[in-house]
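ligand=zinc ion
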Amino acid sequence: MSCTSAMAYYGEGGFRSTEMFNRGEAVYFDLTGRYAKRRGDDVRLMTPARSGEALSRITLAHDFTLYEYFLTDFAGHRQNMGRAVRYLEDVDAALGAVLKYYDLERYLLILTSDHGNVEDLSTRSHTTNPVPLVAAGPGHEGFASRCDDVMDVARAVFEYFGVDPVKHSGQPIRAELIKLPE
Ligand SMILES: [Zn+2]
C-alpha cells in the first residue's frame, strides 16, 4: 500500500469518490484520471493544471495535505525517456497551478522525493542520488534546517505540528495531538 493510500485508509477523511474527482474535489494519482478511465471508471479527464488547482483548493480545507506522484518512478524503472519527459511536464504544469492558488502566507509547502530514479535512465533501479527539497511559506527555514537527509522529512513534519514522532510511532495522528504552528 502506498503512503497516501495508507493515510486515506487509516485517517479520518477516507477515500474520495469518482463523483468528487469529476467535480474537481479530488486529485487522481496520475493528475489526469487516464488510469481510472482505462479501468472503466466514469471519469472526466482533467489536465494536470486543473488537478493542480484542485489540489490547492483541497489544502485550504485541511491541516495537512500530502500528494504523492509516482509515474516518474514507473518511467525510471522502464527506462522510458518519452514517458519520463511527459510525466515531468505533467508535474510541472500541476505544480505551476498549485503555486498560483496556494496560500504561502498561511501554509508551508514542501516538495521532495523519497528516492532518486527518473534522473538516471541508464539504470532501472532506484538511485541513492541526493534528492531536492523545496520548502516555502511560514516556518520554511526551520523545516529545511531539520532535513539533512530524506529520512529526516517525516520527523520534521511531525515536529512542525508539535507531535513527538517517537512517542506516537505507529499510532494514528488524531487532530487532538496536533498543535498548529502560529
Ligand atoms: Zn520504484
